[in-house]
């Protein structure tokens, strides 16, 4: 008989051990080795058995053992010290507090946001909380941990999925099976948000046809950062609404829009309830990690309308304080909904047309919501476009991805060259204490001479590696490889058993894989662009590499395919079938159920981390960074972060044939390049040993990788960049727009007057723009034969369509031209307003030296200008001569 539901009954903790509870619910344990060791000391075998999960351990340890520990002075002392360390971590001033100190003396003028809300559909914080499917979620988890380490006042919001993402297993013939174990929130490190009378706080959303969606709010504590997770699986909901939060990325579009409405609109409501109950400052900055939670902007507009603002003013406030990060360089990967579906959720209720806007967002007109998501296809609502239209600041996640995004979203800034599209980039990073092996952390402590590893953010802190003996570095690498091989053998065995093999035929697994062989890892989700099977392009050649007598390689492969992606499952099957071959199965394996705990072992132990996406479709990629933090060498197509930080000595670049339209040929070329590199560069270096068996040239690459990439790939570097380049300017922009405006008009001399002034300006600029014309451009001063440095004077007459000369910028644009007269990489020079022509047109002029030789061209253009815009390009309005 199968139980309908399961839950955990725990033994009482003796008073002396009470702190264990606190240590188990704060997920800081997941990146703090001393806390993990403490839990392991309670019962080493049980710790193993529960997969290193403190909450599960406390749920299963017997009262007898707890009594014993309570009487053990040394254990209690150790516990107290670790609990004190947690308290210290949670309260001492960190980087953010120091940043405030440096900038201030003046409180608010320091400009630092008093609160930041971070929205994501998935969070990969720890293996025990399987609320993630891949890189996006892991990145969000690492963002929270680093925000905690740096002391940011950040609150995160997402959904609690009853079944998380699926667990993967394989059928006998290598087909992916998905299992959805039901998670018991009581057994997870979560607490429920309750009000003063101990009742669960519920957020409530009005859906079409009179339905109401309720959600309770779980809180996961990630160090200092509260992570609010909304959960619809409660009796207050009608049956089918209980399953809104059943699975991550499962179900149809209808299911998905409900999840995204809950995350966005419900997420803001959850934050309001949380900050009020906890007495925290309301967030000033809202960060959307991908467009999924974009409806949060619509909810914030509703709040401001309720507080008395008009729509445009509310939008100005929301834009000023919103940051949007895009992660998707593939148009097909962007989240889009049918427009009529959005209309159903955000349109007026047919039963009650008296409410302006929808029942969900009273006062927010449907047409304005639809305009946020408008794109080429009038039947589609585009969540990335909504993100960009709701955020004054936006970024991609690597230099290359920033560039790709500027092109991809160019249509929203029509008339601008891609380079001028206001989308920046911050390259992703990874949380070192989570991903670096304990051996490396230990070495770090020795080199720095302190337990406090915060200085790892500085390049100099890594210079001590220069002095470390190559033999020692190699010894750590070998240790980590051995640990991995042990884990791989166990997993291979388990997988074969699951697939129906008998114990008796699995003797070979005990010696499969070899701790002395060059070990290559390839693990990631399985969308087509990541090309899981590129390595199989020439199976015979791969087999020869695996089985080489002198310089063999071994390959460990893992990854989940989206449940609806049959193509991805077929790729997995191809790998599994190859790895099943008796002649190679001791050198290549596909390990089912890639998750954070398997990932850690792989990053620790693999010598080489392979990545062969179709360039430029990997926005950043982070698994290679985690490998690099462990002295793994990347062997990768120059895509995402690797395009930026490959330096010729920290790994290898697989030459890309991007630009070739024949995909098959491209795969052939890139696969051949991969085999060549493995055979001629990678393996020879690995097996070139000195008298002590150390591959000196290899180890020097390991050392260089750690030194060169170590400080760069850190999530602490990333979060500091977000703080300085996005959060701080957004908070400052918010504080400006909620002030009274500058204009003389009484209408603006009230709180939010500046936002109203900006909204009013935007309306006028948009109205005036079609009338703006540059009527005449004249040049003076050039000699017959212009020389480098000759002065050129340009004047332009401009019909401003009713705007004032100080409400625009007129620019001279000067630079090299190609055969088609297109300017590239031009200089722009602001032109000065010098008077009004008889025609009423305004005259602008500028003088500049000719900056380059060769074919040079110029033009003149007009852009809107206002002190409250983040840039003159923000509104996407431009007129060229
Ligand atoms: C880091 C990580 C990813 C992301 O890997 P990419 O190569 O960047 O796609 C996915 N899953 C897990 C479990 C990870 O730890």
Automatic annotation (TrEMBL):
Cofactor: pyridoxal 5'-phosphate
EC numbers on record: 2.4.1.1
Catalysed reactions, as listed in the record: [(1->4)-alpha-D-glucosyl](n) + phosphate = [(1->4)-alpha-D-glucosyl](n-1) + alpha-D-glucose 1-phosphate
A Pfam family this chain is assigned to: Phosphorylase
This protein's UniProt keywords: Allosteric enzyme, Carbohydrate metabolism, Glycosyltransferase, Pyridoxal phosphate, Transferase
Transmembrane annotation, as ranges: none
DUF3417 domain boundaries: 13-129
InterPro entries: Agluc_phsphrylas, Glyco_trans_35, Glycogen/Maltodextrin_Phosph, Glycogen_phosphorylase_DUF3417, Pyridoxal_P_attach_site
Listed Gene3D superfamilies: Glycogen Phosphorylase B
Top-level taxon of origin: Bacteria
Top EC group: transferase
PANTHER family, per the entry: GLYCOGEN PHOSPHORYLASE (PTHR42655:SF1)
Family listed: Belongs to the glycogen phosphorylase family.
Function (record text): Phosphorylase is an important allosteric enzyme in carbohydrate metabolism. Enzymes from different sources differ in their regulatory mechanisms and in their natural substrates. However, all known phosphorylases share catalytic and structural properties.
Name this protein carries in UniProt: glycogen phosphorylase
